[in-house]
Specification:
The structure holds two protein chains of two kinds. Chain A is of the alpha/beta class. Helix content of chain A is 33%, strand content 18%. Chain A folds into two domains: 229 residues, Aldolase class I (TIM Barrel, Alpha-Beta Barrel), CATH 3.20.20.70; 53 residues, 2-Layer Sandwich (Alpha-Beta Plaits), CATH 3.30.70.20. In chain A, helix 5 packs parallel to helix 6. The two termini of chain A are 40 Å apart. Helices cover 45% and strands 11% of the residues of chain B. Among the domains of chain B are: 123 residues, SCP2 sterol-binding domain (Nonspecific Lipid-transfer Protein, Chain A); 312 residues, Anaerobic Ribonucleotide-triphosphate Reductase Large Chain. The chains are: A alpha/beta, B alpha/beta.
């Protein structure tokens, strides 16, 4: 049994990821590599050093304190990650909080302590806890234990998944203990999926179909609207048809957020996808028409 | 920059005084200000002008109509006006007279002696400087904006209403308690009158001031006409009777409720025995001032300056107190502006009279009771008191009769062949019938009950200043009458008419309640302000037996309040979780979403427990209504001057940091508790220094409150108000003597969060982590953190109150416990307890203006935090803020605590989702034992837009702290403070 795992962030009073007031837990690590990834800091399952250029006053104290010579003003993104041993000394000595370590190890007990603080809000708003990421199902055993604790505490649980998981394990360890699944469907065409997300969607769709057919727990398929990648007419129509055949009535549509870009640079990754605008009105209208047979929350 | 030639300017100052003297000699119109043949008033007075260092002295003597200016000092001046130094005097003397009070604030100027002499002198200077009233002859209110234009800003105010298709709580009649189908367009009379109220410029009404002066000139004040000491009760009863009998009975066109607090359609009543003389310097300019101008005519200004004010220069609560208690230090502290503010110099009023008793039994029965008791009384004092009650009640009866006759008189001027006038004639006849009946006799219909409340309210204001004399539990009072009327309905459409009629009548009362504004000198608006008279209405909660009290009228009142969107009445809702329905709480949230900031929602359970903890019986505690902002008062039994003082908790912190010296003036005002640069080894040493300063200041505030209370006993007893209470008749004592069943005084402690945050920073950085020493922190504070950015950065990282981090709530609780201990061990002048609360009206802004930088990182002059709300920027997450505030021991704050939350609905959320969410925040706060929740449902962007385009946002309501206010009427500092409050995005 794994008793600790890395968590990127814990967001209290989260309102967009499931019903009511929730605590949202971002797990670290994800098997997909979507080019537009909105949480790049949750991609790697390992601890990372993040550097925020905007907050830096170039005082140089990080350079002075680094024992590995891994930091220099000349380096691209400031840090030579091949030298860095993640000791965290620079983080402690940064006066502007520009350097931070991404990923903090939590035991289930520690996590539950934080979760339970807001129990009254979950109860009054019919909210609960949402496990997100990264990919929470990357950590099946840990999540299994956490879900059991949540059930014991009578707290509603929701998992946000990209769908790439081992079905047997899922059926044994996850499904009986979770209340709601937010299931991401990104691209219907397997080739395009493989191209943009670096893995095929075959297993994802099989997992999805299996869940839908069982009809045991509540599933909400969610489609991220990524300009020119997922929000093309072809893709959305194909997804709509697919969901129609599966007799799905309710979906989630996630509007693209152009503000994520700076996040990847912080952990030393050059961003490959660039689109700086919010969804246009016309495009929204077009999307709404494609999904006119479904109910969804305005986006 | 031109260098000021100080000596030359000082000569000019003397020259100006001499010019004034010459003008009195040569101009008769001016001379009457100091020697008035018509009134017989001769102004004999001595003024000393000086500087703090005594480097400059000149004095002025007024004697028998002559003014003389002399170098040097004079003995026993009526007032000494001192300036900070010669430069300050050279700079200030030529500034406009109405600004004179402003310099008191900044402590560039001060005075010792009678404040009325200062305001009079400022007025005289304003006259020679040519202050003139422009374009207003009176007496009607001027229209500021065309009535049709009023709704301009309303376009953006879209009311959203859910409906409910089942009855909840104790609702018996309403099929949809939410009353979703109605809008203000269904009530043309109310809509018109509401718009008319908004379009009129309030005018100063001198009627009461003139009558009260006339009465006393005729009958005496200190002694009666036979030369015997005038019993204050009899004197006051006679005055109040005289005012009520002589005041003009007014029934405004289209109104259903007769009577008015002033002779104006929208008026400012004056109470010269309280603070009216503070307005003296502005008499000629108040109509043009930038913030909230009030019209006054030349004739009325002359009445005040020549006839009214001279009579009251010594005979007011502030000056009587100063003389009687020999110029106490506690009063000087009050007049230092930034330590504490004592409401008693303005008013007591703050209470909830026993309106239920009056509408159900009638005033006649109270009078009969007093008459009987007079015969049985065993002392002259009691005999006089019972007599006084009868005299005062007779005044009410006369006024009601005058209203009844006035209704007939107006109806006779109308043409009954005109259909619209014929309808009005019928209305007037009904009004006349009702006024002949109530409040003397028990009310039997809804309209009679409302008229009974209103006539009583008007008459009580002939005695008591318009300062939060509150209506109380209106839904409880009116429900029996409403039910009785619906019994008459023979079918659904008749029932419908009765419901609509009830809405119209409640609306009519609310419009009447808006017929007056408080008198406020310009300096008051600048520093504080935005507050109305705060006539509060309370709905919901439980009844005396603990049963659900939410009824049809609760929902009717909420609906009316929502449609009108008025600041007044200040609407407060009690919510007893588990007894009142969730649907009711949801509706309270909806009204807030629609109105932006009203009603404030109280946790009935914690309030009742807090009151019981203070010794109130459980049945009485359940019958509480809100007074003023948020404070609990037991209806008709409890005289609790609930805002007797607002004490600035930051002032003792500044004194502890500076060894008793207050940085604003550099004067030693507190105790010498030690030098922070060397004396405090441990954090607890400093904490003890803070506690010592706090205790000192609190004790001073208690002393002056009790002195002012004693002064009220002589200057301003309240026989009429006493007759509306349970207790005074039984005890044979006026309320001011401790006649009520409960006799508390209510304290508001301001800016707790700023103190806690500062203490947390000192504890964490100076003592625990030793990041820097105290001396460095003091340097940073003295320099307003300029050049100390790295220190400021470290300060920002310290977990503050509201973050939910370990130790933050505990420290807040420690200070709360300490405050409770100090006040709880004191007794007020009516042998009652002091109850404490944490709310700030708008004083967090005013006190903030006068406060230097703080260890919490707050910069100099910035507003302090309102109520019990954590400082902005403390936490991005609403939940720890809610949890921190709710965790504080509510039993130690029976005078209530206000928690103000600025929440903005998410654009993508439906109305239903917004209500789901907001309601669950409030419910959770209450489940955690939080006391009171105030919404501000408006985004900072909207507020910024309102600052730029005030015309479009005239009716934008915001919650300041406790009370709500029209945003565009607030001063700029307050507007900024509200914008900068932490805005919790619903995402």
């Amino acid at each position: 049994m794994i008793d600790k795992t890395l968590i990127v962030d814990i967001k209290r009073n989260a309102l967009d990821d499931g019903p009511g007031i929730r605590t949202l837990i971002f797990f670290k690590g994800c098997p997909l590599s979507c080019v537009w990834c909105q949480n790049p800091e949750a991609k790697s399952p390992y601890l990372e050093l993040s550097f925020d250029k905007q907050m830096c006053s170039e005082c140089g104290s990080c350079i002075a304190f680094c024992t590995q010579d891994a930091i220099d003003f000349e380096y691209k993104f400031r840090i030579d990650r091949s030298k860095c041993n993640l000791c965290g000394i620079c983080v402690e000595n940064c006066p502007n909080s520009a350097l931070t370590l991404v990923g903090k190890s939590y035991s289930i007990k520690e996590l539950m302590e934080i979760i339970l603080k807001d129990k009254i809000f979950y109860d009054n708003s019919k909210g609960g806890v949402t496990l997100s990421g990264g990919e929470p199902l990357y950590h099946v055993n840990y999540v299994h234990n956490l879900l059991k604790e949540l059930r014991k505490a009578n707290i509603h649980s929701c998992i946000e998944t990209a769908g790439l998981y081992n079905r047997e394990k899922f059926e044994e360890y996850i499904r009986p203990h979770v209340d709601l699944i937010y299931f991401d469907l990104k691209i219907f065409n397997p080739k395009l999926h493989a191209y943009y997300c670096k893995v095929s969607n075959e297993r994802i769709l099989e997992n999805f179909e299996s869940l839908i057919k069982q009809g045991v727990i509540e599933i909400l398929p969610r489609i991220p609207l990524i300009p020119s990648i997922t929000d093309t007419k072809e893709n959305l129509r194909a997804l709509a048809e697919y969901l129609n055949i599966l007799n799905v009535k309710k979906i989630g549509l996630l509007s693209y957020n152009p503000l994520w870009l700076s996040k990847s640079e912080k952990i030393g990754i050059e961003h490959k996808y660039f689109h700086s605008e919010w969804l246009s009105k016309e495009k929204k209208k077009e999307i709404k028409e494609i999904f006119s047979n479904f109910t969804f929350k305005d986006f | 920059m031109q260098v000021l030639d100080v000596e030359k300017e000082l000569e000019n100052f003397k020259g100006q005084l001499n010019l004034l003297a010459m003008i009195f000699d040569t101009r008769r119109k001016m001379r009457r200000e100091i020697y008035n043949e018509k009134t017989g008033f001769i102004f004999n007075a001595k003024y000393q002008f000086t500087t703090k260092d005594d480097a400059f002295n000149v004095h002025v003597i007024f004697q028998d109509g002559k003014m003389t200016v002399v170098d040097g000092k004079v003995e026993n001046p009526n007032i000494t006006i001192y300036y900070k130094d010669k430069e300050t005097l050279a700079n200030l003397y030529s500034k406009s007279a109405e600004e004179s009070l402003d310099y008191l604030l900044t402590n560039e100027m001060g005075y010792i002696g009678n404040m009325s002499y200062l305001t009079k002198f400022s007025y005289l200077t304003s006259l020679i400087m040519g202050a003139k009233i422009k374009d207003y002859k009176g007496p009607e209110n001027r229209v500021q904006y065309p009535i049709d234009d009023i709704d301009r800003g309303e376009k953006s105010r879209k009311l959203k209403n859910e409906s409910l298709n089942y009855k909840v709580d104790k609702v018996e009649i309403l099929e949809d308690p939410y009353l979703a189908k109605y809008s203000i367009d269904d009530f043309p009379r109310i809509k018109y009158l509401k718009n008319r109220r908004f379009s009129l410029k309030p005018a100063i009404c001198v009627e009461r001031a003139k009558l009260v002066t006339e009465y006393h000139k005729e009958n005496g004040f200190e002694v009666d006409n036979s030369g015997n000491p005038f019993d204050p009760e009899l004197r006051q009863a006679g005055a109040v009777n005289y005012i009520m009998s002589h005041k003009k009975p007014i029934i405004h066109d289209k109104h259903l409720i007769a009577g008015s607090t002033t002779s104006k359609e929208v008026g400012i009543p004056m109470y010269p025995e309280l603070i009216a003389t503070a307005i003296w310097p502005e008499l000629k300019t108040i109509g043009e001032r930038e913030l909230n101008p009030n019209d006054i005519s030349d004739k009325d200004a002359d009445i005040l300056s020549l006839e009214v004010f001279p009579y009251w220069m010594e005979r007011n609560v502030r000056e009587y107190c100063r003389t009687k208690f020999n110029n106490p230090k506690s009063q000087a502290l009050e007049e230092g502006w930034l330590f504490y503010f004592m409401m008693k110099t303005n008013a007591i009023s703050h209470t909830v009279p026993g309106f239920p008793m009056i509408i159900n039994e009638g005033l006649e029965s109270v009078k009969n009771k007093a008459e009987k008791l007079e015969k049985e009384a065993d002392s002259e004092e009691k005999v006089n008191f019972y007599k006084a009650i009868q005299i005062a009640i007779n005044g009410v009866l006369t006024y009601a009769q005058n209203l009844s006759e006035e209704a007939i008189r107006i109806s006779e001027t109308l043409d009954s062949s005109e259909p619209s006038q014929a309808k009005r004639i019928e209305e007037l006849k009904e009004i006349s019938r009702i006024c002949a009946k109530v409040p003397a006799n028990p009310a039997e219909t809804l309209q009679e009950a409302i008229q009974s409340i209103w006539t009583s309210f008007v008459c009580l204001h002939c005695e008591n200043a318009n300062s939060a004399l509150s209506i109380g539990r209106l839904d409880q009072m009116l429900q029996p009458f409403f039910l009785k009327e619906t019994e008459k309905a023979r079918n659904d459409s008749e029932k419908e008419e009765i419901i609509k009629n009830a809405i119209e009548l409640v609306g009519s009362l609310f419009i009447r309640i808006n017929d007056h504004d408080p008198l406020m000198p310009n300096v008051g608006w600048k520093l504080f302000g935005g507050s109305s008279s705060d006539d509060t209405v309370t709905v919901g909660g439980v009844d005396r037996d603990g049963n659900n009290a939410v009824n049809d009228m609760t929902f009717i009142i909420l609906k009316t309040n929502e449609m009108l969107g008025f600041q007044d009445p200040n609407m407060n809702a009690r919510y007893y979780s588990g007894i009142n329905s969730k649907e009711y709480l949801r509706r309270l949230t909806e009204v807030n979403v629609n109105m932006g900031a009203s009603p404030s929602i109280h946790n009935d359970k914690t309030m009742i427990e807090a009151l019981v903890h203070e010794g109130f019986s459980i049945e009485d505690a359940r019958n509480w209504g809100v007074t003023g902002c948020v404070e609990p008062t037991i209806v008709g039994k409890h005289y609790g001057h609930t805002n007797c003082m607002l004490l600035n908790l930051v002032a003792p912190l500044e004194m502890a940091l500076n060894n008793g010296v207050i940085p604003l003036t550099g004067d030693l005002m507190g105790l010498e508790t030690g030098d922070t640069r060397s004396n405090f080894v441990k954090f607890d040493d400093f904490l003890n220094a803070y506690k010592a300063q706090l205790k000192y200041l609190a004790e001073q505030s208690i002393e002056i409150n009790n002195f002012l209370g004693e002064s009220h006993k002589y200057i301003h007893p309240t026989p009429l108000l006493s007759s509306f209470f349970e207790g005074p008749l039984e005890k044979g004592k006026d309320l001011i003597q401790g006649g009520a069943v409960y006799n508390t005084s209510g304290v508001a402690l301001v800016a707790l969060s700023d103190v806690i945050d500062s203490l947390l920073v000192i504890r964490d950085l100076v003592y625990n982590k030793k990041e820097f020493d105290f001396a460095t922190l003091m340097d940073a504070i003295d320099n307003n953190f300029e050049g100390y950015e790295s220190i400021l950065h470290k300060i920002e990282q310290v977990p503050k109150f509201g973050s939910g981090e370990d130790g933050t709530v505990e420290l807040a609780q420690e200070i709360i416990n300490y405050c409770y201990e100090i006040y709880n061990s004191a007794e007020n002048y009516r042998n009652g307890k002091y109850l404490i609360g944490y709310w700030s009206i708008s004083y967090h802004t005013g006190f903030g203006m006068l406060t230097g930088a703080l260890p919490s990182g707050r910069k100099k002059g910035k507003a302090l935090t309102p109520g019990l709300t954590p400082a902005p920027g403390t936490t991005d997450i609403l939940l720890p803020s809610i949890q921190s505030v709710a965790a504080l021991d509510y039993l130690k704050m029976a005078n209530n605590a206000s928690y103000n939350v600025k929440l903005v609905p998410h654009a993508g959320d439906s109305h239903e989702e917004t209500l789901d969410l907001f309601t669950s925040y409030v419910q959770s706060f209450f489940d955690l034992n939080g006391m009171q929740w105030q919404f501000n449902v408006v985004s900072s962007d909207t507020l910024k837009d309102a600052m730029t385009n005030p015309i479009d946002y005239r009716w934008l309501l915001v919650r300041v702290s406790g009370y709500n206010a029209y945003f565009t009427k607030l001063n700029e500092n307050m507007q900024i403070e509200i914008i900068e409050r932490h805005e919790y995005q619903a995402r």
